[in-house]
């Protein structure tokens, strides 16, 4: 058996933080990994008059998306996707979800059939009454075993090496151990669980809960209400996944970093919480706040709430998820935000 | 069957907040409760030149412990404990734990044998290798069925009627329904669970976790670390109760307001979190901070950590609870706080 060759597909804030860990571990575990280098695919753009790949490869810092953090020298930025994944046996998908489809179009047929993948992409793909996690989308398209990683992971904090945890939902135990080897450090604890769907869905659905928490903060209701909303949201997440996916494990929600801990982190800070709070306090529409506060990027939580609403409507199950429905109605149907807790 | 006669034993911040709910519900559910009045036992003291019972009975406000909140007129302050509980069939214990023993001495033999009780007292009684919840202490001493209530309940927020939840661990389902009738309002949701021990222990052990969260904030580690500590703490709470108590339900910790939600509230704000944060930032000993920040009152979390340490040492089980042990060692044994996350 040859050694594993890693490729990181995506180089934003989280992609750069995780590339740092991968670079360190590939050099450390030379029995498992090819230690020559960790290619990281970078969507080429100019930054301060220079190409971003050049900046990364010369300064070993992603000055645009993770400034101030030194990357190991074996992390090599590559602007060509096919070249970045050439011969790779361990693919790490870490990019905004809207770029995944195009990325898979390019990769289709060009990936080693014995490779395995892991996705760190947040979100789900909803088409009417169908819902798919990205691990399944990748696995189906490329024909390779795909796990998922999600947890209470603010990228900048992981990059600064403060104590953090995360959860890998693995497809096979062997895959799980490989991903743990690639990412775990003394201050970044990787827990393993046999539940790709649960871990993936936590990462998507927690953003709805974070929007609700932002509403509570905007209303000035206090910590009792906020904790209640987080608790109810966590249970709706669990309930949703148990209803619509097979073999989901309760622990992914109630005991793992992917569930309870990520809900906490997302509801304490994070963009979903902050923008939802501003929505209540500033009384401005979400598209205006997205422009102002997120540089025009979309606010994930309200879009996931809409996707989930469409899906639940098709399945005639809206009533079983009152908090998700409240977030949808407040965000998209002009329900007054003061109605949030009514009837929960 | 006669109607239930309620008595509230204790009139601090939480006692006054809960007396307000009881007063409202006794008037509302006249089929179940005697609606003439809700006696609340008040440890008599002078406040602003007047007796506290007189202030409460004239102004219908506990100006010392819950200022600014109107109490229903049927809540009547009584300075004599025996008189307050006379003929009562539903006793609500809500006082600092250090006053319970003396209170039980007075009540012993004077309580209706068909009465039932509920305790809202936080803490546990540890004597070497023995540990007891207060519901058991009350039940054994007075010979009456005793439930427990605990949840994400900052008293001032409950008093102001913002959306909150709580959990009643009941001794019998009938008792549970009675306590729900006494406390539940549209904005104060009472969940019932058949687990007196789990609910009681949550209320005691969460303070240790809140101290750990305060240490994290003092260290400036950020939200990933804080969420990780809260998650680990919640699991140690559950593990502890499952190891040392019979018939504890996992849900009390992972799904109920008593568990996950109260851990959240306590770690967001609350005195344990705040004083522990100051311990790190101001580098002053806890007894000095207790004097300065708590008016000389004891910080529950560090004392519970010590009780739990003594108990676990007797049982030779310290190693199974690394976070509890770290809180103990940092608080009482001069372990540097930066060691908090090491080896977790």
From TrEMBL, chains A, B:
Positions of the Glycerol-3-phosphate dehydrogenase NAD-dependent C-terminal domain: 195-341
Class of this enzyme: oxidoreductase
Organism superkingdom: Eukaryota
TM region(s), chain numbering: none
Gene Ontology terms for molecular function: glycerol-3-phosphate dehydrogenase (NAD+) activity; NAD binding; protein homodimerization activity
Annotated EC: 1.1.1.8
This protein's name: Glycerol-3-phosphate dehydrogenase [NAD(+)]
């Amino acid at each position: 058996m040859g050694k594993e060759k890693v490729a990181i597909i995506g180089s934003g804030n989280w992609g750069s933080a995780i590339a740092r860990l991968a670079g360190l571990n590939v050099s450390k575990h030379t029995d498992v990994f090819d230690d020559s280098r960790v290619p990281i695919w970078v969507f080429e753009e100019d930054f301060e008059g220079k190409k971003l790949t050049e900046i990364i490869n010369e300064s070993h810092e992603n000055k645009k998306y993770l400034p101030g953090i030194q990357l190991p020298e074996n992390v090599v930025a590559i602007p060509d996707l096919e070249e970045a994944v050439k011969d790779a046996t361990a693919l790490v998908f870490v990019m905004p979800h809207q770029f995944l489809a195009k990325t898979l179009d390019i990769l289709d047929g060009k990936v080693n059939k014995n490779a395995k993948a892991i996705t760190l992409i947040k979100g789900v793909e909803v088409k009417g009454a169908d819902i798919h996690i990205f691990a399944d989308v990748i696995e189906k398209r490329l024909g390779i075993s795909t796990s998922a990683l999600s947890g209470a992971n603010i990228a900048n904090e992981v990059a600064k090496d403060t104590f953090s945890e995360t959860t890998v939902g693995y497809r096979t135990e062997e895959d799980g151990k490989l991903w743990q080897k690639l990412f775990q450090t003394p201050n970044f604890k990787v827990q393993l669980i046999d539940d790709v769907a649960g871990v993936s869905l936590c990462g998507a659905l927690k953003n709805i809960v974070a929007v609700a928490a932002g509403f509570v903060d905007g209303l000035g209701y206090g910590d009792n209400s906020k904790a209640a909303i987080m608790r109810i949201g966590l249970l709706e997440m669990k309930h949703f996944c148990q209803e619509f996916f097979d073999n989901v494990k309760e622990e992914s929600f109630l005991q793992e970093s992917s569930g309870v801990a990520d809900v906490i982190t997302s509801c304490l800070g994070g963009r979903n919480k902050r923008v939802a709070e501003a929505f209540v306090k500033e009384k401005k529409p979400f598209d205006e706040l997205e422009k102002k506060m997120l540089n025009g990027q979309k606010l994930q939580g309200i879009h996931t709430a809409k996707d989930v609403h469409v899906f639940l409507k098709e399945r005639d199950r809206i009533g079983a998820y009152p908090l998700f429905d409240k977030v949808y109605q407040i965000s998209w149907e002009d329900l007054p935000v003061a109605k949030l807790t009514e009837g929960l």
